[in-house]
Design a protein that fits this description.
Helix content: 25-40%
Mean pLDDT: 79
Strand order of the largest sheet: 2-3-1-4
Distance between the termini: 13 Å
Number of strands: 4
Number of domains: 2
Strand content: 25-35%
Radius of gyration: 17 Å
Shape: elongated
Structural class: alpha+beta
Amino acid sequence: MLKRAQQLSLALVASSQSAAAHVYVIKAFFIDALTVVLKDPEVILMGMVVMTYKLNPDSDVEDVDSDSIAEAIRALRTENYDVQKVETKPLAFGLKFVQVHVTMNDGEGLADAFEAQMSAIHGVGEIEVLSMGLI
């Protein structure tokens, strides 16, 4: 079930995010969820959260390498966190920021724990949540 939700959320991130794409992903997810519940009524399904973060470089660190930050973020992929896409984008004056798309279960403290792991990476300054949504 988790694998299917991750595939659907990746499709949503990669799509043009049109209304039709959203409807398709939501329908597919709920059909999968209904199938699981019908097979085992004891199962309690948690929702999945898709989050997009903007990681700004630390102003106190000279020569921040955004590519090494991006590699460190990719390494954070675990059973709880599906890091789907990591991009480096221009910020200003030659500086770059890292944009992270991640899917996780909707559990208490999971987003905070992921943000703490990202902030522990050398060169990461301010972390901003650009978007958050349930799938």
